[in-house]
Amino acid sequence: KVAIKGIERELICPACKELFTHPLILPCQHNICHKCVKEILFAFEDSFADGGSESSNQSSPRIRISASSMDRIDRINRSGIKRNSLTPRSTLFPCPSCQRDIDLGERGINGLFRNFTLETIVERYRQAARAAIAIMCDFCKPPPQESTKSCMDCSASYCNECFKIHHPWGTVKAQHEYVGPTTNFRPKILMCPEHEMERVNMYCEICRRPVCHLCKLGGGHANHRVTTMSTAYKTLKEKLSKDIEYLISKESQVKAHITQLDLLLKETECNSERAKQEASQSFEKLYHVLEEKKSAALRAIETSKNIRLEKLQTQVEEYQGLLENNGLVGYAQEVLKETDPSCFVQTAKQLHVRIQKATESLTSFRPAAETTFEDFVVDTAKQEDILGDLSFHSNGLEIPEINEEQSRMYNKALISWECPGKTDSADIYILEYHKLNKEEENVTWQKTEVCGKSKVLSDLDDDSSYAFRVRGYKGSISSPWSQEVIMRTPPAPVFSFLFDDKCGYNNEHLQLNPRRTSVESRAGFPLLLGSERLQIGCYTTLDYIIGDTGIAKGKHFWAFSVEAYSYLVKVGVVPSNKIQKLFHNTHDVTSPRYEQDSGHDSGSEDAFFDSSQPCTLVTLGMNKFFIPATPAAPKDPASRILPLPSCLGICLDCDRGRVGFYDAGRMKCLYECEVDCSGLMYPAFALMGGAAVHLEEAVTAKYREYHDNI
């Protein structure tokens, strides 16, 4: 028997936080319950079905799944989650212990070994914890008797009488292996999960797992270094025994560390209380400042109110005096009763002036004071933002910087950042962004929490500029915000296509990669043979290639990059009704029409060349971008030559009949012209000499969104 006391934490599943039940060994060597694996995979699949939501907690307690959902779980076990199109049969599982996505291979859960050793230890712990609870016989008639032994072959427990009945002497069952009463039944022979009829008899030192001879002969361990099971058992047992002996010999050192940790626990408690007091004092100061400001504001409003009420009340009294038999009018009526002319004149002169002023006030009535208090509105927007950012700032937490070179704006936005010291001192990052709009006065930042150093955003509007900033958090301590970076989204939804390897593709001059996302012009021996007959002043041939998908309507954008060493590349669009003309319009290198001394006027020849083009293309080459010579273009040829951007984009608007050529890094239009969109429009490319074009890859939902050590 082994000592059970004090090992509870080693027997707890990291997912359900309960004792292990049928534990499985993951490729990362962590253990997890068989049921928990199914439930986490089920939740993981739902997170992808909801558009890549990250709201699911990988270490949450068990999710209660209805019986109708079990079929979906079994389907996941058989086929796996297809996270990556390049490895469609790969099953990724988020390990709750190391927080990494673990590849379970083609067989998924069915390819994992059951940890019978751990299961036995858990059962011993259970028995020690419930020693007073007896294991009853499985075959007694009610009431059942207490069992005395358990059969490992029958996976059942028996009392003495039932054991004799079901295992009679002289039969095969009499040879069964029996042990003391237990509920943990394990097979005698460990079978291979990939080859279910074969027992494991070797140990793969590369994958660190038992394998059978078929795995070594033609399976996934064919080229791996393996050893016999007995040798592995002996070696690992010796290593484990030595390590255990070493730890036992260091018991005094461990106790010293425990004592030190106990002191650190007490010190942490004291320091936390001190920090709470300091934080409370800081907030009390803020409360005091706010209370003073509040009292001052209320006093100012009250003073202004009293002054205004006094003015209005005086004005009310003045107007009440204009009423009959009241105030000024009543006094004037009494003066009119005076019969002595000299006395009347003496009093009426001053009274008449007052009556005239009262009459004028009636014609131009104006309140003596304003009733609104608009001047007393307290604007706290900036203060609210500052208080919203109030946190524990630390000089040790570095300010992250958004890496504009690694960040991308395409079908989705990929925002990537790094720390200047190249250390990841923050636990999580908060990425905020907002759309730049001149009409909006108050900016509302959208916030998202990220565990890594990059984030993919998919809810941005086309043809819009956005500001981004990021800050790091370590517990409740945060770094200041990074410098804001402004990036612009593509002018239209991204159009996805591959190079067409069938329609007009010249495999002698052009070479496609297997994924059909890159094309390269090979200026090799075939072109050299074709140039054997060339004389001076002759044009050479352009090799065309188009996209495999056409556009019928709407506005679309796609991006690509051209290698800096490329000699000549043309890019643009071609309508479907002119594709055949495009591939049959290549220039004959021996035709005298293209010789400089053919007698043709150069101007008329250029006009014929321009009018005969079946598609709309711009020229790139020698690390330059050439704006076509049009009436609206600058007359100076040097001003029509621009540096070649690292990434180019084309925006086709079929509804307006316009095509634009963009610097895709800054989303700036370099050139725009009209185009005939009467038919299906296809992306078109032409290469000559040494040149290469690479289509921009789409940003996926989980692109670069994992830790650097995964």
From TrEMBL:
It holds the Pfam family zf-RING_UBOX. Keywords: Coiled coil, Cytoplasm, Cytoskeleton, Ligase, Metal-binding, Microtubule, Repeat, Transferase, Ubl conjugation pathway, Zinc, Zinc-finger. GO terms for molecular function: ligase activity; ubiquitin-protein transferase activity; zinc ion binding. Residues 336-393 form the COS domain. One of its GO terms (cellular component) is acrosomal vesicle. SUPFAM superfamilies: B-box zinc-binding domain, Concanavalin A-like lectins/glucanases, Fibronectin type III, RING/U-box. InterPro entries: B30.2/SPRY, B30.2/SPRY_sf, Bbox_C, ConA-like_dom_sf, COS_domain, E3_ligase_FN3/SPRY, FN3_dom, FN3_sf. It comes from the Eukaryota. Belongs to the TRIM/RBCC family. This is TRI36 ligase. It comes from Sylvia atricapilla (blackcap).
